[in-house]
Amino acid sequence: MSRARKYLLIIVPGVCTVLAFAVIFLWPRDVVELKFATYHLAVESGAVEKEWLPSFLPKSAKDIYSTSNLDSNTGLVSFSFGADFDQFIVTQQTAQPTTASSLGIRGHGEIFGDVHELTYIPKISVAGEAYPGALLVNRKRRVALYVK
Q1: Pick from 82, 81, 92: nearest CA to 134
Q2: In angstroms, how far is the first alpha carbon of the chain from the final one?
Q3: How far apart are CA 39 and CA 19, in angstroms?
Q4: pLDDT band at 142; cut points 50, 70, 90
Q5: In the chain, what are the domain boundaries?
Q6: What is the Cα–Cα distance from 97 to 117, expressed in whole angstroms?
Q7: How far apart are CA 81 and CA 113, in angstroms?
Q8: What is the pLDDT of residue 5?
């Protein structure tokens, strides 16, 4: 076997492997990020109507940040809230408090890391109907994290 042929047998599979990894890691994913300062701005944009944000978002919601993976139909929505959300929380069935990290959610440990401050709602109900996802609420800081 010639020397050039030996190099080709080594180089070609190596280049193909590198290209395959590049395609996998650099291929654009259908991830949508939305940011709104207020609920009013989110509604004006159509994000609630188009169901990019949950319908139970309170009118007092501020600092709304949403990340959605359209391929897997998963996402996170974080927002701060006022007193108008308290009644919604009270009507939900809660479970044992849990942290964001125990739910497998990274990057939210500072706000959603102390179980003494948290309320966990694993099954959301809106107008008596089941709503997809779960809700983690920090009652002390008045911030919520919706997990779809």
Answers
A1: 92
A2: 57
A3: 44
A4: very high
A5: 30-147
A6: 9
A7: 18
A8: 66
